[in-house]
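Sequence, please.
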């Protein structure tokens, strides 16, 4: 049957039993103190090899879930549940805007080999249940600079990412506040099942004139705050062998647009990716250390923005995957770059990783973006991203983005280190009949995989 016609995966309403109040349980001493779920930690039972993947015939990617799943984030957790069960498995969460609840959780079923709603007491488990949404979230208040925003963008609950940090399960996410500003925020729990404590917005939103000194002012004032979105965590390794943590957010400058009073041309603010070191206290409070560092600012090749960043360390090198272009159609695409120091360096050696012409999409999907990785082998990762089925886009159909899973390799078939490549691209190129139909409009791509 067609992928989107699969059996419904939301058979029950989201659970209202999960509160967002602090847990009354004492900290679980079995939890790891070092960050877990960072750099795509893998889980038993889903490991594979590049050779096994390349031996398969190419297939058109299928949706992981019938539900809309923008900004999909996959994570393998190790945390024991407080009730004595286990949550060490692969979990999936995604953007869920405009709903009376937020961030439904999905769990990998090994027996059925698919993601299914995570159930608790027979109900779909969510981070923020109906009736328990944080009071600071936008409840329909308009955005002065964007008065015609559709409801799913107005009531934004975007880009959830889950990490295990110092005995806590930590959710970083984006929400719009009641003044209309997008905020990077976080919540903590002792278990993925909750209860969750929302800690509210982080102090990471810059004023526009720090980025655009000649901004002429507008509906939000002379020097409004810019939104921030897509918070993600990066381990920072230093010469002492100690591991520190950095939070990287995107400044959402593309949402602030105006006409230049001198030239009469349309302008928008830039969208830098900004990193800042932080620590997490024993009570789950996050504290920033030092000054922020701008890793990357959008250039003319990025279609107005960069966002959806994800970091991975392979072959002794820190890589960053990020998306660019308009999210709502075929223009959205994903790049990969290198970074030597997240707290002081900048992204270099940018290269297009996947776009709408990629053979990996089988001619059926477009706009691949907002990646996350889960390690499944030596130098091999499952690559999760969202895409639009050909024939759909945001302007015409509203939210229809689906979650896909491809693979990213940092090794050659012989096991030598190489620059990352999408495995399914190589599969398609090995089967010309499939490749031919996809590549008629494709841009040339150099083969970056090499021995080392």
């Amino acid at each position: 049957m067609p992928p989107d016609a699969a059996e419904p995966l939301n058979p029950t309403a989201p659970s209202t039993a999960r509160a967002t109040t602090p847990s009354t349980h004492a900290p679980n001493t079995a939890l790891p103190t070092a960050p877990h779920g960072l750099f795509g930690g893998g889980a038993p039972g889903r490991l594979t090899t590049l050779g096994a993947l390349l031996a398969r015939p190419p297939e058109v990617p299928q949706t992981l879930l019938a539900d809309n799943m923008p900004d999909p984030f996959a994570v393998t957790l190790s945390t024991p549940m407080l009730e004595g069960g286990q949550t060490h498995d692969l979990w999936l969460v995604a953007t869920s805007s405009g709903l009376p609840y937020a961030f439904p959780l999905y769990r990998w079923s090994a027996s059925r080999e698919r993601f299914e709603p995570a159930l608790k007491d027979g109900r779909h488990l969510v981070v923020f249940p109906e009736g328990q949404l944080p009071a600071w979230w936008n409840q329909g208040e308009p955005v002065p600079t964007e008065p015609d925003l559709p409801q799913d963008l107005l009531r934004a609950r975007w880009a959830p990412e889950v990490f295990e940090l110092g005995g806590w399960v930590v959710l970083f996410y984006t929400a719009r506040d009641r003044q209309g500003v997008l905020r990077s925020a976080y919540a903590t729990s002792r278990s993925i099942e909750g209860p969750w404590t929302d800690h509210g917005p982080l102090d990471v939103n810059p004023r526009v004139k720090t980025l655009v000194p000649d901004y002429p002012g507008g509906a939000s004032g002379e020097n409004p705050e810019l939104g921030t979105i897509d918070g993600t965590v990066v381990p920072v390794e230093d010469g002492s062998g100690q591991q520190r943590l950095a939070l990287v957010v995107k400044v959402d400058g593309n949402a602030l647009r105006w006409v230049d009073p001198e030239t009469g041309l349309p302008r928008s603010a830039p969208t830098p990716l900004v990193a800042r070191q932080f620590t997490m206290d024993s009570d789950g409070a996050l504290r920033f250390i030092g000054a922020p560092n701008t890793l990357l600012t959008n250039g003319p090749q990025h279609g107005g923005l960069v966002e959806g960043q994800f970091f991975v360390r392979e072959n002794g090198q820190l890589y960053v995957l990020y998306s660019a272009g308009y999210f709502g159609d075929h223009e959205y695409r994903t790049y990969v770059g290198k970074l030597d120091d997240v707290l002081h360096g900048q992204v270099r050696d940018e290269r297009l990783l996947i776009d709408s012409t990629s053979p990996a999409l089988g001619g059926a999907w477009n706009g691949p973006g907002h990646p996350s990785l889960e390690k499944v082998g030596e130098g091999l990762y499952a690559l999760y991203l969202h895409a639009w089925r050909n024939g759909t886009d945001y302007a015409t159909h509203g939210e229809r983005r689906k979650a896909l899973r491809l693979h990213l390799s940092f090794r050659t078939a012989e096991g030598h280190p190489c620059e990352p490549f999408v495995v399914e691209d190589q599969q398609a190129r090995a089967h010309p009949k499939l490749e031919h139909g996809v590549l008629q409009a494709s841009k040339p791509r150099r083969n970056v995989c090499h021995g080392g």
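The two ends are 44 Å apart (CA to CA).
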